[in-house]
Design brief:
Blueprint (H helix, E strand, L loop, with lengths): L1 H4 L5 H12 L13 H10 L2 H10 L5 H9 L3 E4 L17 E9 L6 E9 L2
Antiparallel strand pairs: 1-2, 2-3
Helix pairs in contact: 4-5
């Protein structure tokens, strides 16, 4: 309801607002170690502006769409390369836009993330 009334806020902001409105105390949980995929997603999100530049200038995607994807933490950029492979080989890596999809599971095991990395041409 808060997301609808306050127009265009994300889920985290809506939860904080409900806590403020009803004086619900915030008790942070202990942080669990990141999975490999979550770590990769986090690294990609640090360079999201590079992805924005590429997507807007090379692919013609609207800046507002890109900005919203970055705000929702679903877009990033990867510069990872494999030390075991040579450039041009499958699995070498290199500069690429990363599309990140995270889902919160309703079980105690926590989040599940997927990172899809699309190589730039």
């Amino acid at each position: 309801m808060v997301r609808y009334v306050e127009n265009d806020c994300d889920m985290g902001t809506a939860i904080k607002r409900v806590r403020e409105l009803f004086n619900i105390p915030y008790e942070p949980k202990q942080r669990q170690p990141l999975t490999t995929i979550e770590y990769i997603a986090q690294q990609c999100q640090r360079e999201a502006e590079t992805a924005a530049d590429y997507l807007q200038k090379q692919r013609g995607i609207d800046a507002e769409v890109i900005t919203r994807a970055i705000q929702r933490r679903s877009l990033g950029f990867s510069t990872w390369t494999s030390a075991k492979r040579k450039p041009g080989e499958l699995g070498y890596g290199g500069p690429a836009v990363a599309f990140i999809e995270c889902a919160v599971k309703l079980r105690p095991s926590g989040r599940r993330c997927k990172a899809r990395i699309a190589k730039q041409s």
